Amino acid sequence: MKELKFDFNNMLSQAVGSAHGISGKELAAFAHNINRAHKHIRQIVSSDRNRVNLSLEWVNLPFQDKQTVKNIQKLGDSIAAKFENVIFLGIGGSYLGLKAAQDALVPAYYNEFPVSRKNCPRIYFEGNNLDPLTLNVLLKNLNPKKTFVVVISKSGETTETKAAFAVVEPWLKKGAGKFYGRQVIAITDPSSGTLRRKVDKEQAKDKLSFRSLPLLKGVGGRFSEFNMGLLHLAIIGVKLGEVLYGAAEMAKRCASPVLHKNPALMYAVLQFLLYKKKHKPVAIMMPFGEALKSTADWYSQLLAESLGKKYARKIILEPDGTENWLQDLKRIVNTGRTPVPARGTNDLHSIQQNNIEGENDKTVTFIRVEKFRDDLLVPGKGDILSGKYYGRLLNLAQEACEWALVREKRPNCAIIMPQLCAYNWGELLFFFEMATAYEGEFLNVNAFDQPGVEGYKNYMYFKLRKPGLSSKIAEEIRAKPLSKDPRFII
Ligand code: PA5
Q1: Rounded to whole angstroms, how far apart are CA atoms 406 and 39?
Q2: Which of 242, 332, 343, 419 minimizes the number of CB atoms within 10 Å of its CB?
Q3: Rounded distance from Cα 156 to ligand 1 centre (Å)
Q4: What is the set of active-site residues?
């Protein structure tokens, strides 16, 4: 298998100048921090307790037990053989990885054409918004008897997923009858949450109802594609072993202490230095081709939720080596690069103008696929496009963007995927996950929590009168409600 490559030529001062690129000297001056970050991550992942408690268990997912993987593949195959449609309910880390996989690894227009999807079921994603329009249409048009439902929520408490399941469950019950629960799988925490309690209750009545798949402790939502995303991959006919093999090979490369052999570490170092030393707070993620657009969306969540943090991390080290990470309430850092998902060539006719001539405050990460599984030839003669393959034109456009950015001294880099296949996609995801973990070390933040998301949830829960909401929060909202002056609404 050809491996994924990271080309960082255009992040360096020799390409874009010293005001906007990183020099060898700057890399050398940062060597101590690089070694410290690498050592710290290696220490955590080599301790079972730290790995689980600090939510880095995802590093082991590529190497998970083969029998578990086989069982999931079998379960996926059996669902695919029996059902015409599968609805996946979930949001954030319980959705974005699945959507990314769907768009990258199966043919475009998958739902429309049975031959393209090799007769696997049509796939629908719901519960990723509180938008009433989509789910309504879907349920009016699908046949519940021919539809399987997979509800994914690690906490089992997320509003969007809960609301969607509350609508889907009676629809399924009404249409599929008494044993409708046999058409449901719940992927949720093994011991806590409303969804878990529902699973346990239904299972007590009928063992085949509301089956559930194990979620590993210490794997946060956005790092969980190789855990909670596996059933989806199996249902759409992707070989789980190939995705995990790619991830495992990348995991080995990203464990290297040698900067020039460790692509994720190099990516994190360059992004961090460009952010902090050359004022590049905006992260444009621009794969070329439609198939990877959702992978850019997945990365946006990974970067924003992992590294966009108010407080620095405070590490409490126990004598036995156990670490606890707290928010250092005395150190407000308000840090983290801002992700902007895009895709070429589509966005060359939109945000690219700003990338090239707007403020020089960005890095652009391209993802380039060397060989397409299904290329297309432009027919005819006499035009510059005649006789050219789409894949070649796409890659030429990507190369042209690099040239145009370098010309304007704009740092950029390219991740080169030999093919858009399960193996290379597994590598790609693991590369980004590991890079995010390293970048979290440089920023000294906890990359594995998302406390900022609680703010809006608390406000909604207050308004919805959720029992058990902390009285401190309720007091705060009462004392300082959102106030609107009509003079400022025109
Ligand atoms: O990365 C995360 O942990 C979050 O984005 C969650 O995945 C998201 O909030 C959904 O949570 P849950 O799976 O508990 O419904």
Answers
A1: 34
A2: 332
A3: 9
A4: 305, 349, 457
Instruction: Give, for ligand 1, the residue of 56, 98, 125, 155 to mutate: max count of ligand atoms closer than 8 Å to Cβ.
Output: 155
Report the distance separating Cα 398 and Cα 392, nearest Å: 10
**What is the whole-number distance in angstroms between the Cα of residue 129 and the centre of ligand 1?**
13
189, two tokens: 């925490």
Residue type, 451: P
- Residues 165/159, Cβ–Cβ less than 8 Å: no
Q: What is the pLDDT of residue 362?
A: 98
Give the integer Cα–Cα distance in Å for 66 and 71: 9
Structure-block tokens of residue 111: 């739902």
Model pTM score:
0.97
User: Cα(341) to centroid of ligand 1, in Å?
Assistant: 20
Angle between helices 422-443 and 240-253 (to 10 degrees): 40
Span(s) in the chain for CATH 3.40.50.10490: 5-54+242-443, 58-235
Q: Which CATH number fits domain 58-235: 3.40.50.300, 2.40.50.100, 3.90.76.10, 3.40.50.10490?
A: 3.40.50.10490
Bridge partners of 210?
Answer: none
pLDDT tens, position by position, 13-63: 999 999 999 999 999 999 999 999 999 999 999 999 999 999 999 999 999
Specify the ligand 1 atom closest to the Cα of 152.
Answer: 13
Give the pLDDT confidence score for residue 476 in this predicted structure.
Answer: 93
Which residues of the chain register pLDDT less than 70? none
Evaluate whether 58 touches 250 at the Cβ level (below 8 Å).
Answer: no
Please give the number of the atom of ligand 1 that sits closest to the Cα of 189: 14
Q: Considering only CA atoms, give the Rg of the chain.
A: 24
Classify domain 5-54+242-443 by CATH number: 3.40.50.10490
Tell me the backbone φ, ψ of residue 20, rounded to 5 degrees. -130, 0
